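forwarding from the other thread:

> can someone predict this with magnesium ion?

sure thing
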Amino acid sequence: MKKVSIQKPILNANDRLAQKISAKLDGAGVFAVNVMASPGAGKTSLILATVRALKKKFNTAVIEGDVVPVDVDRIKKLKVPAIMANTGGACHLDAVMVQKALSKLRLQSLDLLIVENVGNLICPMNFKLGTHLNVVIASVPEGADKPYKYPGMFKGAQVLILNKADYLKTERFNLKYFKKGVRLLNPNVKFFTVSAKTGEGIDDWISWLDDQVINYRFQT
Ligand code: MG
Ligand code: ZN
């Protein structure tokens, strides 16, 4: 019972800072995406494909929640700003980490910011970052039971991307069961089936995200 009373004020402080970040992003007209998934689901691969497709149209930057700059270095090869938000080994990004990373970016010159959260399907959804869109990636090799095991992540997503669709031919993956779980938890979620490796389905996701950024820019 004592733990409850400790955790609530921490979440509130985080959410307050997230609101400030959100206002800052809106002030600069930057549409921000929070990408969450378990380790190895293909967050960085999907981000790379997204940046490749949209960097000419939108000035794009990436924040990587990590302790080593392996993924940051992969993003930097695409010649877009990439900042590591050092998580110090934490299991999620929080608003303080994102705020620190944001201070290293020139927000006024950006249109699109992609934040790669820590690989974890338990708690990242509980920590608001001030972003506009929650994207959760699941992948075929992880199995079709993920929505049933991690309902919080699937409930909080606005976009659900099923990655590694190329494995659908070889793995025993019950797509119907997976989709049923997703729909039960989150009937309005935008659903994409993609393979970041082969490029299958990526165009649908890209053109949808493109529309979101354009719509956002009309509003701000
Ligand atoms: Mg990664
Ligand atoms: Zn955590």
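The beta strands are 31-37, 60-66, 82-86, 112-116, 133-139, 159-163, 190-193. thats all i got for now
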